[in-house]
Amino acid sequence: MPNRFLCDVLNEMRECTKTLNFSYLLGLIGESQALANRMEAKLEDIEEIEFLHVRIRELKKEKKKLEKQVDELDEINT
Question: Taking the complete model, does pTM exceed 0.70, yes or no?
């Protein structure tokens, strides 16, 4: 099934008003809502991924500090 864009659905809604045939308008409204929901969900996913990348970098820095502390403690104990 090819991807459908929200703009395509909105254009079909405009065609409904031009032809005064509103029989499929409710379906188009539902489809536009589903497409908009998918778009919002994807934007949230992208934001979450960016946050996770930042958190991973922070944790890697913390890991290096802890490894350095462990190495220092090993040197002291030997």
Answer: no
